[in-house]
Amino acid sequence: MERAARALPRGIFAASMSFFDKTTESIDTQTQRQYTIRLSEAGIVGFVVMGSNGEAPHLSIEERNTIIRETRNALDSIGKQQTPIIAGCSEHSVRGTVHLCNEASRAGTDYALVLPPSYFSKGMSPEVIESFFTDVADHSPIPIILYSFPAVSAGIEMDSGLLSRISQHPNVAGTKFTCGDTGKLSRVSTAMKSRQSYALFGGLADFILPALVAGATGVIAGGANVTPRTCVQVFDLWQEGLVEEAREMQAILAKGDWEHTARGISGTKAALNDLFGYGGSPRRPLKMLSEAFLSEMRAGLGELMAVEERLGASSLKTKCIDPRRNYRHYLLFRITPPEVFDKLCIDAMGKKANGTATSQDIKKLRNRLSQQAFRRRRDDLIRELRERADNNHTNETEALAKLRRENTALREQLAEAHAKLNSLLSGVQALVLNTAPRHEDANDEVSRANSPDDDVSASQPIVDDQPTSADLRPISQNDASEQTVQPVQPDEPNPCLEADLPPTSDLGGPMIACGMTQQIPNIWSFEYQMGPQVYNDALVSAQDLGHSRRQIWVESNSSFSDHIDFIQHELKARTEQPKVQLSLPLLYLATTSALSIFHTISRQDVMLWYTKTRFYYTRDITVWKIRPCEETFNKLHPQYRPTLLQLSCSYPAVVDWLPFPSIRDCLVRYHAGNPCIDQVVSDVVSMYAVETLLSDLVIDAPPLQVYVKVMDLVQAMGAIDEDSSERPAPLPTLKVTDIFNVPSVALAVASHLQIETRLDRYKLDPRLFIRHPEFLESAGSLMAHGAPLQPDYSSYLSFPASMDNKTASSYRNFIAFTCSNVYQSRE
């Protein structure tokens, strides 16, 4: 749903930077917000994100959306809801550019800044460029701003006639001139004079005054990142009619701004680091400045930063002045040092700066300028009163639209608060569950209180009946010095304790305990109890036991893996014969049939999952296990390719069926020998989730980030058969509950989230990490963020029962029948 864009005010816009974590190069959202607030409070009237300064070519679409959302949230947090955001949305095709415009709009952008397509620059005639911008404007949900910047668009120069023709489109809101051509700007300004709302932007900090003289309504300046107040001062002096003062301020700004802009993004970030303590480094391959360049830049910025600091101090002294009145003259006369002001007065009178002007002349000029400032303030007040009177005659439609916008903003705030409270509630519930006393523990306390053994408890070492944090860490994380912990106090007398403890009368020296934790370090760790070595030892014993029982399969701690291993073994025996080997397409066909019979016999409820999600990745990993070669490996989805740990040790085969490498490694290290590993895997699969925006799913909803579990969608789509004529409902829908109660809406949401094709979008519900905290070390990029959308009841995927002779025989006979048919069809 399209929304009204915020108006483009006259003034200075910042060409925003993007900030990254120094170690991971991920988006530094906290710095992004603080930076936005600093510039806004310095007088910046709008922000242009995802341009050259924002390192847009280095960011994914998701990261671009994050920058936009953080900028919007920062502005809203300080009451600047009406400050517009412009986002760079440049691709080399109409489709790609419109896609970026749609993404930016959903993230909270008001306007899209679009370069001409330039990859195939020789084919970009004026007619092609005009057609490109017209098509983009036709399909973009937000107004677009033309971007004339030949330096980054293969030298393509859009002349004033072309820009004026394109600008006649109602969805074209303005033009940015980074070309520095004041003549072109002036001609476009004249051509677009009839459109009062059309914006014309200069594109450089040293181009502010020339652009304003040529007819610009504002300037988008990279220099505003470092010296926002100076840029704003140049604009305001021009607005007040003080051209000579604006020219002098522009000269200082142009000289200092060049010191960092000439060095590109690295220079600007180095200046921010040096002057304000934030900025970080650009994304590689861009490098930070050397110390020599930094020293040279620091010296060149001296004069400009002195002006910026003086303007910053001035703004603190004038906060008591009515913001509706124009007080830039007040700053000029009350803040400028006397000797500088006197020089300005002498120069303004045409006298030489050798002191020939008398104090009386200077006083007269001061009074004259003060009177001019007063008249301008009076004119501004009259203009403001007229605008208020005109606004009182707005029709009911405009008033209703304004109320709707306010209502939407309030709903966004309420939704964000709800999401935060929901997250807090989940954390508190998890804390309550983890700290609740067990019933048997309470009984133990009562029995111990009544036990006569309490009389001698004071002479025995105090121990804890729970494993310590050192015991729960993997072996590799514990030093030998950390492995001495207090022993577990048993309920029954411990011969070891009785033998080694000194008599009660000799307890003055140190006590020596010989508990199990000291004898066997890390006995309570996951790796010791259920790691790959434990699994391997148990598997060897199970093979011997299986031979004695004459079983045709090997029974392990994972019944799921027993089924998979047996099917893989039978397929390999039938298809990988020494003289006759199935071709790969036929091998994939046979494997698909075998896995289908497996799910049909042992996991009937799971067929709905595979039907709705098209999860064929498990077939590919099975084929690679049967025939490990380069061709089968290349067909594996990147997320299913084995890790180094998987290639170096034994583990249950069901682990291979999970699409998250870090989770697979955790399962191998901590659960390979776990008798409940099938339940753990079922928990993981049932927690697959996909993130989206609530506004994409529900009408009139705010653009709040939410996530939906794939299992809940599959459950909601259960009533729709594959051959059904029912089609997906249109999105957005009316209510959130429709997603889980109306199958056609669930089908539409599944299509929107691309659960069949975009495995890279899959995340994990945060509740998984509460249930299994051992996965927290892998939670980084895998944990879904936002508010959960969920039905009243969620189901879990089942896992197969233990293998028996009847099931194994069914598998063997079916695979033999299938493979024989495949061989015959090949002949």
TrEMBL record:
Indicate, by first and last residue, each region the UniProt record lists as having compositional bias (Polar residues).
475-487
**Gene3D superfamilies linked:** 1.20.5.170, Aldolase class I
Q: Return the annotated region ranges for Disordered.
A: 437-503
User: Record's superkingdom?
Assistant: Eukaryota
Any coiled-coil ranges, and where? 386-420
Q: Which UniProt keywords apply?
A: Coiled coil
What InterPro entries does the record point to? Aldolase_TIM (IPR013785), bZIP (IPR004827), DapA-like (IPR002220), DUF3425 (IPR021833)
Q: Name one GO molecular function term.
A: 4-hydroxy-tetrahydrodipicolinate synthase activity
PROSITE patterns, per database record: BZIP_BASIC (PS00036)
The UniProt entry, under SUPFAM superfamilies, shows: Aldolase
Q: Where is the composition biased (Basic and acidic residues)?
A: 437-447
Q: Where is the BZIP domain?
A: 363-377
Looking up PANTHER family in the UniProt record yields: DIHYDRODIPICOLINATE SYNTHASE, DIHYDRODIPICOLINATE SYNTHETASE FAMILY PROTEIN (AFU_ORTHOLOGUE AFUA_3G11920)
Protein name in the entry: BZIP domain-containing protein
